[in-house]
Amino acid sequence: MIDTMNERSFLVPARWILIPLVVLLFGLGLAIRLYDITDLPLDFHPTRQLFSALKARGMYYQSLPDVPDWQREMAERQWKTKVTVEPPLLELLTVATYRVTGEQLWVARAYSALFWVLGGIFLFSLARELASLDGALTSLAFYLLLPYGITASRSFQPDPLMVMLILAFWWLVYRWGKEPAWKWAVLAGLVGGFAILVKLVAAFFVIGGALGALLGRYRVRDLIRKPQVWGMIALGALPGAAYVVYGVFVSGFLTQQFGGRFIPALLIDPVFYLRWAGKIDLVVGHILFALGLLGLLFFVEREKRIFAFGIWASYFTYGLFFDYHISSHDYYSLPLIPIVALSLAPLADRAFGSLLEVTRKTRLLRVLAVLVLLYAVTLTLWDVRSEMKSVDYRPEAAKWAEIGDILGHRGGVVALTEDYGSRLAYWGWQNATFWPTYGDVQYHTVLRGGTNDFEQRFEKEVRGKAFFLLTKMDELDYQPELKEKLSGYSIYAEGDGYLIFDLSQPLSP
Predict the structure, then answer these.
(1) How far apart are CA 177 and CA 155, in angstroms?
(2) With the CA atoms of 141, 146, 149 and 154 taken in that order, what torsion angle do they form, in degrees rounded to the nearest 10?
(3) Does 5 have pLDDT greater than 50?
(4) 311 close to 139: Cβ distance less than 8 angstroms
(5) pLDDT of res. 263
(6) Phi-psi domain of 429 (left: phi exceeds 0; alpha: psi -120 through 50; beta: other)
(7) pLDDT at 165
């Protein structure tokens, strides 16, 4: 499939080395993601991961025999009261596996890791179309071994699957541009449509990639005359459009889910761009981000350059549209990883081409260069592995189960806890009313223009409730009114990192 006979390569000096090297990269990428995979999903955006975990458990318990009725009812309630934005495809796959393995949270994380690694196949194939073998291998190594990507791609959320499908679509639509046949058009349309169905935001990257691949080779007036183009558009748009129509106009569950994502005032706020830059730094790093942008200038052929500009434009357009989330949720920049990976390919071409010339006559220099590359890969993986090993989240399950048992499982709890009460819900089996954090209050009052009447909120939330659970102790420093109010109630129980106030026992003034 890959002809290296007439291609000069620094990383692949002999043809037989290619397959073992690619297998090694994929093996390392998968192995590091599966390391300590059985730990609790609290290492990366636990709120989002536990959101999916609660939905999956509810689906699983719905037909699970030999469980207490109250647990089944609570699991179903926790599932059905969660908002629905994306179709629960990963959750359904996880539940199907639960029927074999039992309820094991690592199952979904393993699926996500596998999806991301499989995406590397399409990224490598696409990078091979855009650059030399050295460039494609560099793109693959960056995609598989980037520290942030390793952690993010094994999380219980649909984003790793979405990224895999986006990469598959980019490769397919680029292939169609080179070889406009119905098989590529149909496959590209189906995969692009599935990517959008998995997570609607994928539409930005599907459209950007398609425009980049097609406009790099054809004029607009020629494209609109091609039935295959209209076939791709129809297949790509239909699944997501049908889901939105059903969710908005039939069931109504999507009606309230499109608000709060675009805040026009942020676009003229310099702090927004600084926060966005901070998320970019966290995901890929400022230097690699800048090198990726510079890589655009090294695509010599017009069709490759236009395609690269298309996928970069999709990221910036997406970020400006989801301005609040792109500047506050780092995983919203997850698609940036394959974009930067592909853009580094032409830079790697130049770098390894020069390195090949420098080391051609001196074997020792070549060995030293290879040792430097091995050093970088080894230390990167060791650092990620050490970080994973340094924290064990498993005791958290027992802690929250203990809190749940103290509170009982009858409801009537207001909670100011981690992850919007998700840990309490999952391991403590509690349906608590969540008290907003200081950050939530700021978001709703400053950014969304809401009101902040503390007394009214407190009276409303505690009415009919028996307990107020506090585990985010630092919040009392940011919410002095709440601190003063809670000081008027007796403490029902306290332990390592938690306080439970008895709302039925106010202290005498």
Answers:
(1) 34
(2) 70
(3) no
(4) no
(5) 86
(6) left
(7) 98
| Reported confidence tier of residue 450, pLDDT bands at 50, 70, 90 | low
Of the candidates 139, 129, 136, the residue with the CA atom closest to the CA atom of residue 9: 136
**Dihedral sign, CA of 375, 36, 48, 451?**
negative
Confidence bin at 119 (pLDDT 50/70/90): very high
Q: Which amino acid appears at position 307 of this protein? A: F
Gyration radius of the chain over CA positions: 26
Q: What is the pLDDT of residue 161?
A: 98
Average pLDDT over the chain reads 92
Phi-psi region of 189 (alpha: psi -120 to 50; beta: other; left: phi over 0): alpha
Which position has the higher pLDDT, 192 or 85? 192
Provide the residue type at 310 as one letter: G
Residue 414 β-bridge partners = 433, 468
Sheet strands (E) in 317-402: none
401 SS3 class: helix
Is 414:508 a contact under the CB 8 Å cutoff?
no
Angle at 281 between CA 48 and CA 52, to 5 degrees: 10
Residues 43 and 112: their CA atoms lie apart, in Å, by 15
pLDDT of amino acid 114: 98
Using the structure block, give the residue that is written with the tokens 């506090």: 470
The owner of tokens 């130049």 is 350
Q: What is the pLDDT at residue 368?
A: 92
8-state DSSP, 194: H
CB 433 within 8 A of CB 466: no
User: How large is the greatest C-alpha to C-alpha distance in the chain, in angstroms?
Assistant: 89
Say what the pLDDT of residue 419 is: 93
Q: Side-chain half-sphere of 44: how many Cα atoms within 13 Å?
A: 24
